[in-house]
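new request in #modeling-help
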Amino acid sequence: MRLASGGRIDRAKKLSFTWNGTALTGFTGDTIASALLANGVKIVARSFKYHRPRGVFAAWVDEPNAVVDVRYGDQHDPNARATLVSLRDGMVVAGVNGYPSVAHDAAGALDLLHRFLPAGFYYKTFMTPSWQSYEPQIRAMAGLGQVGDAIETRAFETRTARCDVLVIGAGPAGLAAARAAQAAGASVIVADDRPEPGGSLLWDTATIDGAPALDWVGATTAGMRVLSRSTVFGAYDHGSFAVLEDRAAAPAGWAGPRLWVIRAAQVVFATGAIERPLVFPDNDRPGIMSANAVLAYLRQHAVLPGRRVIVATNNDSAYATAIALRDAGAAVEIADARAEAPNIEGIRVRPASVPLGTGGRGGLAWVDLGPCDGSRRERVPADLLAVSGGWSPAVHLFSQAGGALRWDEALAAFVPVAAGQHVAGSVTGAWDLATCLAQGHRAGLDAAGRASDLAAPHAPASALARPILPLWGLDLPGTRQWVDYQNDVTAKDVRLAASEGYRSVEHLKRYTTLGMATDQGKTSNVNGLAILADATGQAIQDVGTTKFRPPFTPVPLAAIAGLRAGALFAPLRHLPVHDDHVALGAEMRDYGGWARPACYRGIGETTAAAVKREATNARFRVGLFDGSSLGKIEVQGPDAAAFLNLMYYNEVANLRPGRLRYCLLLRETGVVYDDGVVARLAPDHYLLSPSSSHTAGVLAMLELWHQTEYPTMQVSFHDVTAAWATFAVSGPKSREIVMALGGGADLSEQALPHMAMTKTMLGAVPCRIARVSFTGERSYEVSVPSGYAHSLWRRLLDLGEKAGIMPYGIESLSVLRAEKGYILIGTDTDGMTLPVDLGLEGPLRAKKIDFVGKRSLLTPDATRPDRRQLVGLLPADPAVVPVPGTHAVLRDGGGQRSLGWITTACRSPVLQRSVALGMIESGRARMGETIDLFHLGQFSRATIVATCFYDPAGEKLHG
Amino acid sequence: MLALPCPHCGTRDEAEFQFGGEPAIRPPSAVTDTVWAEYVYMRSNEKGPHRELWCHAGGCGQWFVLTRNTATHAVLP
């Protein structure tokens, strides 16, 4: 029921929403839970295991029951917590885990079987033949919301921030800390999960410094950086904290949450405390609520959840609820578990009295009250039972950050042992406002590490401050006393687990699922471990808590992914003339992180046909290839030659300026890491061409060796890959086209032979022309600054039109290079391939200095005669292209042994047959032998030949 | 996320750095195969204080040695 006045809601802004298809209304300032309570909705959910009807219990993050399905616009949250979601106009809210509805759930009959479904019953029951055969049915019956299949469309952002002092919690202690730290000159961020700062002051009627508390909150937070609706959910290394900012109230609508990573030099934990339920028979009936939640709903939302109320408590905090209910016009009685009870005007207070049972269909109708031992009971009609079993400090983040906890007998609570950390407020077990403010002020100054003459805020001491009487359940056999509402764990389940030997709280958790639901046991953990302590005869301190791990509340994976999703998950690099390729019909694929043309298919042309056409054209006329993604690392300095000679397997110091050499780069293990052409531009200036996907790795390797092993050498490295575009003109007619570019460079065989380079100017544009070939045809790689890439690409196509120029893609290049036996690193080589395996033994014999990987090439393993070696393979059936990965096998009697495998295979257009490369054991000694191939149960045969299938003399390359 | 001290740029977030593993002193090539294999393949995998290489790859590019407690992530002097 909604009161006529009061609350922090805007009665002028009425909101319409539906609950299970019924139209209801609420106000701006409502949560879904407060609006449901205002409309008299009792049953909001069905429990996970027994499908028991459940109502709203709490008012905030500790809520165990009210998980609902929310649709708003095109957004859908199947497991929303009704106490946390701000109500919006047009929201469609429905109960979960109930069919046809949570009010009338067919599976509720499961509850009648509870005697056969004790803790661990899954493990004991579903063993034959296997758990997997039962799992689908059990999964279908259990669980909460149904996930939709819609793609998340909200924008998720990630932000980072730094500060001197991070204050977690904007309650009185947190604000006092932030106020003091800021006055002392520290940069401060306050993160708080509620829609507005104030914490308990939002429902407390306290005064601070003689004014209403919320006036003090407003004055204190002016000019302060406060992140509201921002849950600090994880404490990570070196003072970093992960924060999830709920932006449901953002002006843009229901925006996705924003993930913050805040790095703080100091942190003040002012995380507050969570009220515990009392454990007594049938304590899960809708209409039984946390006493503090009842107060919060009354003061924040002007909602009176019941008119005939019993407040059951073992401590003084619930008295404020009782008095507020009385003032709002409800009939109130207090059942206090303690022997002494104060007189409260207009309220009957029953001492030594606890709830012994409850009843009512579809909600609460009566409560049995009496002493703990159940020796007497009186049935009292009630539509609301507000309970308080004491308070558990919210030590989650403090503990995540490495803080130790101590069980305080007098407070009946785990409290932080602050050793060099700053804690303030009810997280320390201080329940009194004046103490919380004083602690906060002190913690803020300590965190800032500086003094301030700002006076601490002051509040009058509270009137009631009698000790708590710990109460962990009632010894009433045959009753069901609920500890974990969401996962349906009773006190009996905890005792059963203890009797079966689960003495560790971590084992108890896993066996009974206590505290493993989406609320992570915020209301249930301490009650559960106290019952375990009693059942096993241990002290609560010795039982301890389960380990606190992030996240404090559920975090959508989409928020952690942020913008790194979909097309931005691993963005592909684009070539400078990407658009030209696409316009020519190129099929763009991911090659080592670059979007590159696979081939340029004509209309109605297959990929295979396009590859054949492009490769043939490059062989007999001329082709144009975009090699811009190939790495370009400039190496400069007086020691450039000496340094690179230490890095490369091949000799590079004797390379003449203007000349190029094909070189291998090894790991210190001797394994081939990369290959590429090394060009010497000047005595002190080299240009390296690592593989497209290895450029960053090669640069890092050069830096590491320079900085750690040869720091005195004067040499520097610069990755200029993106600065230059490189196009290869390849084929018999290549020279005339490159000549036609102009620039005046002498491209004759004498001036620019194979593996030579020259510089020229195309008008005002600097240009490099290199004779280097990956096709086996005479080729010119023409490079210009990337900004001129489009002009050069267009011009080469125009100039080559008469000669029949065609662009060719990677797939066509793969065929051309396979015909020539040119290797592709990572395709023909793997993590075991040494240069000698590729037939490149010369430098090892000739080069005297200790280049990277040399010593490893001299070990017994590297010099074994039976290593796998790169060879060519001609399949016996020229029409069959063997699948790469096909093994070469030695058939020996009934068995077979692998000799190696095929690394590259294709149909060669120029030879009109299949060809392959492979790594075969002692391959070079088997030249001319025919061997067996084996793939997926099928045998075939192939003959071992030299790696170069086409123009082995290189006549087409030179000249 | 760790906060690591780059000798040039000061303390920065871990995301800016590249891990380079445990440093090994390169022996002369005249050593035995066993000694060479120790250098190439064997690492101590300490629990506790651990010397390791890091590169401020997203910043100045400096490689440096850091001592970090692998059990607590504490960066040690």
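bot summary: Chain A touches chain B at residues 160, 236-240, 261, 263, 668-669, 700, 703-704, 707-709, 850, 854-856, 858-860 (CB under 8 Å).
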